[in-house]
């Protein structure tokens, strides 16, 4: 190979080498540019994400603003309603003032007429003094009769005035709830001359039924002079409001007490009536109306049996009046459902029967307190005001009443019902939730179904302990549940893992202050 060729090859090689170096450099530059672009892209992504977050925050603020705007509108509406109510109160107050002015004016005029009549009477007496004694006596008698007639008229007018004022003060004391009512109830006297009620001429026996969410009771009272076979006043012991069904939930196999047999337990079904929020209503395996009717039917068997044993010749559907207690917040729909359930329980002939009457629980408690506790301590005086606090299974009700009349007993409601949803059912529910967390819901459901007695007694004992001793002040307060003693059946159903944990704790569960306070405050 000639040197010329070699020289050209070397030159070409050098050129190629230079190009290769340039390409490598360009490649490096491209890589660097790519990295820069990736970094810029990442920065853009982060900025975009930040903008998305800001957009979400703005949207959330818009929602909050809308809520706030709606809240302001609601407040304005409430303010408008309150102003309207205030105007109504002002109108009522003005009317009362005007009426009082008119009545005072009338009274003043009548007193003036009386004075004039007395002056006329005195003048007549003086002018007639010159006449003979017989004629004078006759004229005096006539004048006295006329004067007495006028005084009688004036006295009656004053009584009417006082009654009118009393009516005005009762009817207008609350513009929002002017439903002032008076409660009249049966005279329980057993004297022979007692008249029967004109509304219920055939009633011989009155049955009061206290149907509660946790427990129920009834009492039977004879309102005639007919002598019973044993007692004219029978009170049924307090029973649990519980039903036990067969597997198909078609037939009631038992009710009230705890059974050693395995049944499907249904309870707290009354809570499906009234204003309890849906999230607090218990889940039931049967329709709540069926459960209520089934329970009332079982009560009805005892009622009919007691009447048949105690009084011969009493026709249940003709001679018995049922008085059923209901919460004060029951709507007309709730009352209609209770009538339907009572009819389905075969306690009345038809749904609209007048032999079924309702009384609110607060009214019934107020009557009991007046006829017993207030009377016992000599506090039963006219216009006496007293507060009733009714702590039920799921609600606590506060009402203020005033005694208007003593004979017959008449009661007025001074304030509207104040209600809060709190009671033993909620504490029980929280305690059961704790057991579900400790031993799993599936296990506790098995215990509840197969060993309901020990389960319910355990829940009840916990509630009693908390109710009697827990005040919220003692931070060291606790409750120890001995599972092996209270629910020994539980040991057979827990998982291996839970069993090991519980064995290490000797099957004892210490429920501390914070857990108990959370249950109570829930």
UniProtKB/TrEMBL annotation:
Assigned keywords, A-Z: Coiled coil
UniProt KW Electron transport keyword: no
Keyword Coiled coil included in the entry's annotation: yes
Coiled coil: 13-120
Protein name: Hsp70 family protein
Source organism per UniProt: Rhizophagus irregularis
Upper classification of the organism: Eukaryota, Fungi, Fungi incertae sedis, Mucoromycota, Glomeromycotina
